[in-house]
Amino acid sequence: MVSDQFGVVGLLAFLRAAESDPNLVSLALGQDLTVLGLNLNSPENLYPSFGGPWADHPCRPQDVDFHVPPEYIINHAIRNKLSPMKLNQYKEDVLFFMFYTSVGDVLQVAAAAELYSREWRYHMEEKVWITQVPGMVFLEKTASYERGTYYFFDVQSWRKVAKEFHLDYSKLEARPNL
Amino acid sequence: PLQKEHQTQFQLMESAFYHMPHPSDTERVRHYLPRNPYNTPPYYIQA
Amino acid sequence: YEDPPGLVDKTEYLIREWINIYTTHQGRDSTKSFSVFVHQMNLHGILKTDDLITRFFRLSTQICIDTCYRILCDKSTLNSTGGRSKCYHTLDAFVRLVALLVKHSGESSNTTTKVQLLNKVLGIVAGVLLQDHDNRLGEFHQMPYQRVFTMLFLELNAPEPVLEALNFHVLTAYCHTFHILRPAKAAGFCYAWLELISHRVFIGRMLATTPQQKCWPLYSQLLVDLFKYLAPFLRNAELAKPVTMLYKGTLRVLLVLLHDFPEFLCDNYYGFCDVIPPNCIQMRNLILSAFPRTMRLPDPFIPNLKVDMLPEITYAPRILTNIAATISPPQFKKDLDSYLKARAPVTFLSELRSNLQVSNEPGIRYNISLMNALVLYVGTQAIAYIKNKSHSPSMSTIAHSAHMDIFQNLTVDLDTEGRYLFFNAMANQLRYPNSHTHYFSCTFLYLFAEANTEVIQEQITRVLLERLIVNRPHPWGLLITFIELIKNPTYKFWQHQFVHCAPEIEKLFESVARSCF
């Protein structure tokens, strides 16, 4: 058999070394390319929202420049006239919109805090917002959990959907604080 | 082993590695609702 | 030469003046303020000669860059968003001035003056960058330059008629600038450079919206620059963090290209693989896995797949590289052609190795580019030869020809390193269904079957196996070749010693076989 690095034994030696040193792996065995933050099954082109070679996720909608007619660009004229943001005056729709589009931004936490104050709770595992259906009768209620019918906010259909939940209090996020 | 030229390049690359580009470097400054990167909880929606 | 007395102060005054105008937002968007400012420039004699304009831009660039260094080196603002946005403030104003000057220079319909001015400014910024990079070394900051290039590009790609007429020139100017600033020339700028050439708007313009793929060759050159820079670092089995970061970023960019522009990778695979180190298997597989979007790949795992019945295997893939021109020296090329034509003199075969070997030092014995070119050139000649006889490549039609003489000679005559590189050059042709894939797949199997020593079979297996055990993607041609090798009893694959030389290897073969079956 070939005794140097160009035969099967050479490959074997490399594989054995790679087991102990992950640094050796990335070239010979490569890595799982599906975890680089690119949706390789997307029917759409990736490049319009490509976040760059260092980003773990695509650009958010608000990051991507779209060229709108110049007459649309009026922010410099009205910016100082806009009233400051008052989250407690916005409807839940707007709050959910902010929460789901301001990923990794202060706004996301601010929206979460406002939703919390409106009796919504964020389920950390299910990753959904849940609130009690008014007048709902508990099927079960203990010190650590409760069961009953709740509204959860369904991002896909963008509306509240009723559903029965078994709610572990430990899985609900406490009041978000900035 | 790396040739001398490549060693020099590596040192420069290594220094640059500690000053990686920031996402905002390639985005227009937005005066209205500017981006405020924040370490949101990992269980929040990330994409 | 020394700047004329007073020019530095004038420039400083003017650029500060412009930044103030830019800050009062009406200024930013109003052409009136711009024309007032141009008038001021005139008054200060800046626009009098081309040389003064050049100096003005160079000094302006340096002033803005120095401002950024002052902010970035201020411990309190280092890495804070506040510090960066202060930099953006200055840089964006400078960019806006350049963009407006480019747009309004000369007659509106005359692109020449605009392009000349743009080239001048890009050249100046690149010059300042390289000087800065070589002076500051480890203290060099990429951000100011990246911001200038990015924002200017976005400005010049706004959907305006005057800019649309300029666009191809803008892209060409940018590619030239990025080539000058390639990582091999400015290693400390390599991360910003990769982000610049993979910016979504840049990719969109270069590869999608510019008609007739006119910018594809330019973009291909930039990727070759990147691969050439990475090569010496990737040749090291152990990647340092800075290299891993750049490599991972490169994989992301290639994934976007594989998903959105597979034809681009198909067209340029040869030039890319020519500069990617042999041990960089996954990245090379990624490039070789690209196939035209109009093509539906037959499932390679279907039992009894009749590859030679596929219509696609009669078509040759597009090769943009002029392979024949890369075979050197000219005398060697001449001898090669005469041997292919007349299958003589036999001495050509015995001298083949000496033409390929460039040193005796292990690891760098062979001219890999020449090896790659020779393999593909002989292969394409063989396919043409077979077609001329109204045949298509098969195990019988590829045998007993001058082409196969050459391949068999290389197989027998080269040492293990040479043979490894030779088989790699062949394996680089195993891609989507086309005449090259089919020919080289047959050739691999033929060489395996005809091998007079097990070492040859082992090395064929090694080259194929290492490409299969790496994470996906795997090229279609690689899969069907290996499946045929391990399934077809004529090759007696499982009877070879190297299949059973160690439990891990045995397990590896079995797992690959399982996934193939």
UniProtKB/TrEMBL annotation, chain B:
Domain of life of the native organism: Eukaryota
Places the protein is found: Cytoplasm, P-body; Nucleus
Assembly information from the UniProt record: Component of the CCR4-NOT complex; distinct complexes seem to exist that differ in the participation of probably mutually exclusive catalytic subunits. In the complex interacts directly with CNOT2. Interacts with TIP120B and NANOS2. Interacts with EBF1. Interacts in an RNA-independent manner with BICC1 (via KH domains).
Protein family (similarity comment): Belongs to the CNOT2/3/5 family.
Name recorded for this polypeptide: CCR4-NOT transcription complex subunit 3
Taxonomic source organism: Dendroctonus ponderosae (Mountain pine beetle)
The encoding gene: 109539365
